[in-house]
């Protein structure tokens, strides 16, 4: 079928995780039903479909890790595990009839904008072509597993497992297992593997700040109250939101609250680890907040089990039989587990994106991604992003930020329809001013205080985090200011 024969939809969405499904839901509720979602996998769920490793859970309280417009009164724990979060996503799809919009097993290979028609065209690995007036990139930043650049990685003869591609058929009982990585997924995996493996060695490059995770089972009476009185659940959600907002003062900036949180983290470490040398190995040498703050109450105890050992020597290489560390020792394993996270695109794009006059977004972002309000980029009319540049939360629920972006997208799409115009294209000078202000604010944050993290590009540019409160971010997304955009008519001329 040629492009001229392909139907033109109102909205094309890439990705059927929280972001894509939430966008489709809210578009439907605002009268926009001609929506197509392209999903590369065979099911919905995004990162929560892929991350099924033992111990996988959210480090944001359950009642805050859900959409305010579709709350879940059935959470069984204060911090939901991945199974429950997947169940919630599946409930969303069934409750709001979203599956009918999804085309599964469609891997997008490119997005391109046609200047004359004002139409976005998506091409897929499978040979499909989908056209739409507006396009939404909702594939998420945590979608492509990252392996470390260690010499000899391909030589290992044993079993290798990545946290985002777990092999549930592999039996860890009686095995010697090495875990590489002690970040967000590592601190959840290690306690579970320590219960099964005969020998567990945990390779730590950099210790992280860890705060206690106060997880508990929710009582049945609370779930009953939330079902009968949704306002009660909204009140709890608002309380949790405000509590996390207050923590921002200690995570984002160097304040007395930052010092108090460091004291709390050190007390947590001291309470759970009595050995002074091990405590020293587990104590970060950077400011709390510079890297992601972790939540765990069982990681430190797991490291002290008889079958477990923390190794802090740098990894020199991987051999056929295991891991060689800098002091010349080879640690032999049956299985290597890589808890090494994802390739986060703080520069470049996951697939080629072509805008006005054939310009290519990946090239424009090669020194660091930037956008207007994280969601639009000048020269790419009617293209919207969820979790675009500088929308990363350091202290609050990702769903709060996603909701703000979804509502902005709904405003953009419905504005196009109500004004009868072809496209909205953010002005280049507006975007530039927005980003100058962002980077000036970021320079004063803990993220830019000197440590190396996935928040920053190689040359230290922060294209990831938002330098403020979640409420500030939501406030900037509340209104779509037409004066910030070029309004393109059907003839292509600005209005």
UniProtKB/TrEMBL annotation:
MF term (GO), any: NADP binding
Protein name in UniProt: 4-hydroxyacetophenone monooxygenase
Pfam families hit by this protein: FMO-like (PF00743)
Alphabetized UniProt keyword annotations: FAD, Flavoprotein, Monooxygenase, Oxidoreductase
Signal peptide: none
Cross-referenced InterPro entries: FAD-bind_Monooxygenase_sf, FAD/NAD-bd_sf, Flavin_mOase, Flavin_mOase-like
UniProt xrefs under SUPFAM superfamilies: FAD/NAD(P)-binding domain
Organism the protein comes from: Tamilnaduibacter salinus
């Amino acid at each position: 079928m040629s492009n001229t024969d392909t139907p033109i939809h109102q909205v094309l969405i890439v990705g059927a995780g929280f972001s894509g499904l939430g966008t489709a839901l809210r578009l439907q509720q605002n009268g926009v039903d001609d929506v197509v979602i392209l999903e590369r996998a065979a099911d919905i769920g995004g990162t929560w479909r892929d991350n099924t490793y033992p111990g996988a859970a959210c480090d944001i309280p359950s009642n805050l890790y859900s959409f305010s417009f579709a709350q879940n009164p059935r959470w069984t724990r204060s911090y939901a595990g991945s199974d429950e979060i997947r169940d919630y996503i599946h409930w969303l799809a069934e409750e709001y009839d979203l599956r009918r919009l999804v085309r599964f097993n469609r891997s997008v290979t490119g997005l391109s904008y046609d200047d004359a028609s004002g139409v976005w065209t998506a091409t897929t690995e499978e040979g499909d072509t989908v056209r739409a007036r507006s396009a939404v990139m909702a594939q998420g930043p945590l979608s492509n597993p990252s392996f470390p650049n260690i010499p000899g990685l391909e030589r290992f003869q044993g079993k290798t497992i990545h946290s985002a591609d777990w092999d549930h058929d592999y039996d860890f009982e009686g095995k010697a297992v090495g875990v590489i990585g002690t970040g967000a997924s590592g601190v959840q995996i290690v306690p579970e593997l320590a219960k099964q493996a005969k020998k567990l060695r945990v390779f730590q490059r950099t210790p992280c700040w860890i705060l206690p995770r106060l997880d508990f089972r929710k009582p049945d009476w609370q779930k009953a109250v939330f079902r009968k009185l949704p306002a009660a659940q909204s009140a709890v959600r608002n309380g949790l939101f405000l509590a996390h907002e207050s923590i921002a003062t200690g995570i984002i900036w160097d304040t007395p609250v930052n010092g108090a949180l460091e004291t709390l983290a050190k007390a947590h470490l001291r309470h759970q680890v009595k050995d002074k040398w091990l405590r020293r190995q587990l104590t970060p040498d950077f400011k709390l907040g510079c890297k992601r703050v972790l939540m765990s109450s069982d990681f430190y105890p797991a490291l002290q089990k008889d079958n477990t050992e923390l190794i802090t020597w740098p990894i020199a290489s991987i051999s056929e039989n295991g891991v060689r560390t800098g002091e010349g020792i080879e640690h032999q394993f049956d299985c290597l587990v890589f808890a090494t996270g994802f390739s986060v695109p703080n520069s470049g794009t996951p697939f080629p994106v072509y805008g006005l006059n054939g310009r290519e977004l990946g090239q424009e972002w090669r020194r660091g991604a930037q956008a207007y309000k994280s969601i639009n980029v000048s020269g790419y009319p009617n293209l919207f992003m969820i979790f675009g540049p500088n929308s990363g939360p350091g202290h609050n629920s990702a769903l709060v930020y996603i909701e703000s972006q979804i509502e902005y997208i709904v405003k953009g799409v419905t504005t196009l329809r109500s004004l009868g115009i072809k496209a909205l294209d953010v002005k280049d000078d507006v975007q530039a001013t927005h980003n100058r202000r962002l980077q000036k604010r970021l320079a004063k944050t803990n993220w830019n205080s000197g440590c190396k993290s996935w928040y920053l590009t190689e040359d230290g540019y922060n294209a990831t985090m938002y330098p403020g409160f979640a409420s500030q971010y939501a406030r900037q997304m509340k209104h779509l200011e037409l004066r910030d955009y070029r309004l393109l008519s059907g003839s292509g001329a600005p209005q």
